[in-house]
Specification:
With 83 residues, this protein is an all-alpha fold. 82% of the residues lie in helices and 0% in strands.
Amino acid sequence: MARNGGGDEQGRESPFDHLETKINSLIERYEGLQRHYQDCSHQLAEREARIRQLEEQVRSLEQQRAEARRRLDGLIERITQIS
């Protein structure tokens, strides 16, 4: 890390060096958070797509069940007419 011209014979960071270190740390954290946000956004989009797919599957199964019930009711009606 670059030292300013203040002379730092005891190995301590100058205020400018300390500030630079903190800013670099914040930038790294910010970039990490951006990557995490992108990952979360991608996962959310995938899950929303999966939810839409499952909702469509539920609607289809409900339609199949309603059709089966209608046909079964028709068969029961025919059987009761015979007896």
